[in-house]
Write a structure and sequence with these properties.
The complex is a heterodimer of chains A (177) and B (469). With 177 residues, chain A is α+β, with helices and mostly antiparallel strands. Chain A is 46% helix and 14% strand. The chains are: A alpha+beta (177), B mainly alpha (469). At the A-B interface, α1, β2, α3 and α4 of A face α2, α6, α8 and α16 of B.
Chain lengths: 177, 469
């Protein structure tokens, strides 16, 4: 069996304050490939750990698609496939089509928001190297973790570990892939 | 000093303006305390006696529902008390009532999220659950009312060999799309919020079965900052989409009435009238559920008097909007100069269904005025009774609108009274049983309070110990 490759080095903290301070220090030290894990969203981390969020664009496009689909479906059925005289209204009586156009716009956009979130987050992902951290269950309770990943250009097994150790975490863990 | 001690020391009132008011979260809460309090409700082996009794009653009513529906499917809608002209009896009344109840859940979860009302964080989860189950109950009634429910798919546009398609100028078809979209979006929003909480339960699971179940339900959530960012984006977008949606759903329900030319239905005030009534009855249901649950599960530290007070205030405000529409309806019919419109108002007050009209005025307008007093808003028993009164009053309001308008239309020769049958009643009370069963299964198996959002409410949750808005 080949030697397991390192995934990264993780530091465990007790509060959000320490985590944000540590993430800022790591960024200043030149680390880019890192990830913070917390039991609730911390807005301050967004400035430190950049993420190009495509979700709003995808949701907008899905909404537009939903609106066009709904309107065209109604036009196609009411004016082309099954033209019926209902109280003398025109076949393309578009004001009556607005409600369903709105509903399907919302339906498409909302589905895109949910499934897009899963897709961009890479879910479902039932296994991840971070789950090897013995105390990682605290990340969904009261623990705060910062992991500097091995694929970072600055990563060095000893220097990175010492860097994290200097931030005064509760623990430092080396994680294999 | 341990972390928990440190957290307790830094706990303090959240905003200067909040001093003197009951806290949103009782002081002394810690991250770990909240996690174990909520996860243990799901993971412990036993259930409180309250749960057993309520669930048993729910199951009994559900059996009645299943029996009555089975009989209905076998024998047909002749079992209902409906006739011509009262073709919409209990089934549509129940539909409008249930779907209205759901609306408060979306208001709490979506509209209050956009308005940054963070006190909602500890009640939004079960309010959303209430929405889903209320919509599930609501959705069944139009289907049962169809006559041949197994052909429900004829409502949807699909390629078929009949060369016939839905008639998109009809509000009844709009309703199919509105209600199914509402059910889907509510479900997605509810599930999205539960993903991080499923991870908390997974990480605390003691048995293999619960570890795997909640692990799969959580999709492998690990709280990475990128995931939180996506999660927040998706939540805010879903809230932004659900806000116009919830207003549209009851508007479309009211279109079912207003687009008909029947006196008493054909009115432009119906959309805001229905939306206000929906939120009014929904907050009543939130309180009817929250008051016993917070006592039975010892959640008074998370669902505090502040929540009851705020919900009661919202109930009062929407109740006043409703009272306004009750007052304006006779005016518009008088001002229209239309004989039939004026007669409907007259018949409501003194006709065969006058009892329902006066009960509605009493239960929806007069009794809720008690909520002006703070002592009634924070006294759990009185608030519970007022909420029950509102729930019953709102059911009667829909009964008054539907039966009270249909039974006397244009021609006296076609007038007919409506009398509810045993099957009508069995299905109404049985649907309450279905709701109770679904809701208590939710309490047993899913996180009933949003843990990650409550953690955000704690004063030490922000870097630098800053305050939370």
């Amino acid at each position: 069996m080949s030697e397991p490759r390192p995934y990264g080095i993780a530091a465990e903290f007790d509060d959000a304050d320490q985590l944000v301070t540590a993430a800022r220090a790591a960024r200043e030290a030149g680390y880019r490939r890192m990830e913070a894990y917390s039991p609730y969203p911390i807005k301050e981390l967004d400035e430190v750990i950049h993420y190009w969020n495509l979700l709003p664009t995808v949701v907008f496009l899905a909404g537009v698609l939903g609106g066009f689909t709904a309107f065209y479906m109604q036009y196609f059925i009411a004016a082309i496939v099954f033209p019926t005289n209902i109280g003398g209204r025109p076949l393309n009586s578009w004001p009556s089509f607005i409600v369903i156009t709105f509903e399907l716009t919302v339906l498409f956009a909302a589905s895109a928001a949910f499934f897009g979130m899963l897709f961009f987050a890479g879910f479902p992902a039932l296994y991840h190297p971070m789950f090897r951290v013995p105390t990682f269950r605290r990340a969904s309770d009261d623990g705060f973790f910062l992991c500097i990943e091995a694929r970072d250009g600055h990563f060095h097994p000893d220097r990175t570990a010492r860097f994290l150790q200097d931030l005064e975490p509760v623990n430092v863990w080396e994680i294999d892939e | 000093m341990t972390v928990e001690e440190k957290q307790r020391q830094t706990a303090r009132p959240q905003k200067p303006s909040d001093e003197g008011k009951p806290a949103v979260i009782a002081p002394g809460a810690t991250f770990h305390g909240i996690t174990s309090q909520i996860t243990s409700i799901v993971l412990r082996k036993s259930v409180p006696p309250f749960w057993v009794w309520a669930f048993a009653c729910g199951i009994a009513a559900l059996f009645m529902f299943v029996g009555a529906v089975g009989y209905l499917l076998a024998a047909g809608v002749g079992l209902f008390g409906i006739n011509i002209p009262v073709a919409w009896g209990f089934a549509i009344t129940n539909f409008v009532w249930w779907i209205g109840i759901g609306h408060a859940g979306t208001l709490i979860s979506a509209i209050l999220l956009l308005l940054n009302q963070s006190w909602r964080n500890s009640i939004n989860r079960f309010a959303e659950a209430m929405t889903i189950f209320a919509v599930a109950c609501a959705g069944m009634f139009p289907l049962l009312h169809l006559g041949r429910p197994w052909l429900f798919f004829w409502l949807l546009p699909y390629p078929n060999t009949f060369v016939i398609q839905p008639q998109f100028r009809s509000p009844l078809v709009w309703d199919v799309f509105a209600v199914s979209t509402y059910a889907t979006v509510s479900l997605l929003f509810w599930y999205l919020g539960m993903i991080p909480d499923f991870a908390s339960i997974r990480d605390r699971a003691v048995s293999r079965v619960s570890y795997w179940t909640y692990g799969i339900l959580s999709f492998g959530w690990r709280g990475a900052s990128r995931h939180w960012r996506l999660h927040e984006t998706a939540s805010v977008l879903l809230a932004g989409l659900a806000t116009p949606l919830v207003l549209s759903v009851h508007t479309v329900v009211s279109f079912d009435f207003t687009i008909a030319i029947l006196p008493g239905w054909h009115s432009t005030i119906f959309p805001p009238y229905f939306v206000a009534g929906a939120i009014f009855s929904g907050f009543a249901m939130v309180l009817v559920l929250a008051i016993p649950i917070r006592s039975a599960y010892g959640l008074k530290n998370l669902i505090t008097e502040r929540h009851l007070d705020n919900c009661a205030k919202l109930m009062l405000a929407t109740g006043l909007v409703l009272a306004y529409t009750y007052a304006i309806e006779p005016f518009t019919s008088w001002y229209s100069g239309n004989t039939y419109e004026m007669y409907v108002v007259h018949a409501r007050a003194v006709g065969p269904y006058a009892w329902s009209y006066w009960a509605v005025i009493m239960m929806n307008v007069i009794v809720p005025q008690l909520l002006w007093w703070k002592s009634n808003r924070t006294h759990t028993v009185r608030l519970f009774l007022i909420s029950m009164d509102v729930l019953i009053g709102m059911w009667l309001e829909r009964y008054m609108i539907i039966v009270g308008s249909l039974n006397r239309d244009f021609l006296p020769s076609s007038w007919e009274r409506f009398v509810a049958t045993a099957v009508d009643n069995a299905i109404l009370y049985g649907s309450v049983g279905l709701f109770v069963v679904l809701f208590f299964l939710f309490l047993r198996t899913l996180p009933m309070i949003s843990m990650y959002e409550v953690r955000e409410l704690l004063p030490f949750s922000r870097p630098g110990g800053g305050t939370v808005k």
